[in-house]
Specification:
The protein has 166 residues and is α/β, with parallel strands linked by helices. Helices cover 20% and strands 34% of the residues. The longest helix is centred in the middle third of the chain and has 9 residues.
């Protein structure tokens, strides 16, 4: 797969940024995982301090998709750790964007997957199974819908209605 740079996509599709079709997420994320750049169709989950739906989604075949987790921006526990990163890698996910925290950072960094999250936190999440899957989420100032396309690299994270090319 050809690596697309978010900077080049923003330059090429500048009008789409102005119109709101191409959304640039606020620069609030830390980078984890050994895959520094990733892209793919989006799957979404909306949870709060509970990662049961995150695990359930990553247990599915990823087919190069990106999971966007709206964790409400909570900094009180981690929604993803090394086991889930290894699961995502094994099941063919391209990356995970977490509006919340991760843990087991050294384990995540050994996985061939891209992860963006607000911070690291040692505490695990609740396990109640409460949340929503494949709906509309709001993360880092952007509205994100399951089935849209995400591209992330060292310069940021962008979301578009469909896959972009240069």
């Amino acid at each position: 797969m050809t690596r697309l740079a978010t900077t080049d996509l923003c330059d090429t599709y500048g009008e789409h940024v102005k119109e709101g079709q191409l959304r640039v997420l606020q620069p609030v994320f830390q980078s984890y995982g050994s895959r520094r750049a990733f892209s793919g169709a989006i799957a979404t989950v909306k949870v709060f301090e509970d990662n049961v739906l995150v695990r359930a989604t990553l247990e599915e075949e990823g087919h190069g998709r990106v999971l966007v987790v709206d964790g409400g921006g909570s900094l009180r526990c981690a929604l993803m750790g090394g086991n889930l990163a290894a699961l995502a890698q094994s099941n063919g996910w391209s990356g995970v964007v977490v509006n919340g925290c991760v843990r087991d950072v050294d384990e995540i960094n050994r996985c061939d997957i891209g992860v963006r999250a607000l911070a690291a936190h040692p505490l695990k999440s609740n396990k109640k199974g409460v949340g929503e899957k494949n709906g509309i989420v709001y993360v880092a100032g952007a509205r994100i819908v399951a089935g849209e396309w995400c591209c992330a690299d060292a310069d940021g994270v962008i979301v578009a209605p469909t896959e972009l090319s240069l």
